[in-house]
């Protein structure tokens, strides 16, 4: 029964590269700023239950609750995550998150060492990529054209045999 309004503090335990690259305070003036801000990437899903490309646009970013929640998000380096990030045998992208509420309760820490998209999670990531591909095709193409593109794109042998110009022709409306 809790909402984002009940959040007192969010703590992110992470690696040095995260702090250096995407730990951002202050105004985020455009989608490029927003997609390089871990606080934004955490606040939006806590508020809306999603994070899509559209969520980086001005229309969503204007919601004052996002910046209010960003102010409650604190990041700090875990040296073990940094070591695993640089270890060529692991190449982990470890992060952990804890959410504390105004009533004193909290969610237990959630740790992810290999997020979706990491090479070690390829089997988990491919279905999500296919779903994302379908969503984006549906935004641009009629149903039959979507299916033609999918049929070739998801059949590796067929795709490898198809000349590039023929594949690109599938995308012409």
TrEMBL record:
Residue ranges of domain MmgE/PrpD C-terminal in the record: 3-153
GO MF, any single term: lyase activity
Stored SUPFAM superfamilies: 2-methylcitrate dehydratase PrpD
InterPro entries attached to this UniProt entry: MmgE/PrpD_sf, MmgE/PrpD_sf_2, MmgE_PrpD, MmgE_PrpD_C
Top-level taxonomic group: Bacteria
Protein name as annotated: Bifunctional 2-methylcitrate dehydratase/aconitate hydratase
């Amino acid at each position: 029964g809790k909402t984002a309004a009940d959040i007192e503090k969010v703590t992110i335990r992470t690696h040095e590269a995260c702090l250096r690259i995407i730990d951002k305070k202050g105004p985020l003036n455009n989608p490029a700023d927003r997609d390089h801000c871990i606080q934004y990437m955490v606040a939006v899903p806590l508020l809306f239950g999603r994070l899509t490309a559209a969520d980086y646009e001005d229309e969503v970013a204007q919601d004052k609750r996002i910046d209010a929640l960003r102010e409650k998000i604190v990041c700090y380096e875990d040296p073990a995550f940094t070591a695993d990030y640089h270890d060529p045998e692991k190449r982990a992208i470890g992060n952990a998150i804890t959410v504390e509420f105004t009533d004193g309760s909290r969610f237990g820490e959630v740790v992810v060492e290999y997020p979706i998209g990491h090479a070690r999670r390829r089997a988990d990531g491919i279905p999500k990529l296919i779903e994302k591909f379908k969503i984006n095709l549906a935004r641009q193409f009629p149903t039959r054209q979507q299916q033609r593109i999918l049929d070739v794109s998801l059949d590796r042998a067929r795709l490898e045999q198809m000349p590039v110009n023929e594949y690109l022709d599938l995308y012409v409306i």
